[in-house]
Protein 1
Amino acid sequence: MSLDFERLLGADAKSLLEHQCKTIPKESIHLPGPDYIDKVYRLSDRPTPVLKSLQALFSHGRLKGTGYLSILPVDQGN
């Protein structure tokens, strides 16, 4: 099944689909992947337990190993 993105985006389709970012160099963007924590946080001054906790979060659930993390709000009933 093919989606007609131009129709779905309406009047803004051309500007959205042909946009070229000129403010952030693509070399500074870190793509998600299984080694995301190593690539992004390796040179930071974060303590080892913090890095382990981050890695545990990124290595859990349906998105584990993808470099993506989804944390959803939970209603506590208050």
Protein 2
Amino acid sequence: MRVLVAGLDELPVRTAYDVWRLRQQVFVVEQDCPYPDLDGRDLEDSARHVALIDDEDAVVGTLRVLDDGGWARIGRVVVAPGARGRGLAAVMMDRAMALCGDREVRLDAQTGLTAFYEAYGFAVTGPEFDEDGVMHVPMSRPGGTGR
């Protein structure tokens, strides 16, 4: 397993295709949440894609880190169904948090995953909300934590 961190222009074409295919497979098909995944944010110069690539060059997990001005935003966190339960989301989050450094970091967590993000110093910052049929909560990790 290897971790690739890259801006869009640095992603190999087939890897980029696999990233969007995995996001579609899980968010749109598995979770039955049709939403505009291609929102333009992947194209931003500061966007960083974290992709977990297995020994057969398949993308088995991905997330993105965005610059939202005064803070970083982590989103589109996904692990392929056949690769779950192996701690791969933690591998990606470790890399994402390293990319964010001491900046404030925000994300919208699926409600059932708040404990996972709390382990990274995140706290719920607002009420639960429905995003495309899946309940989420806003979470934030303050800046200057040294993590």
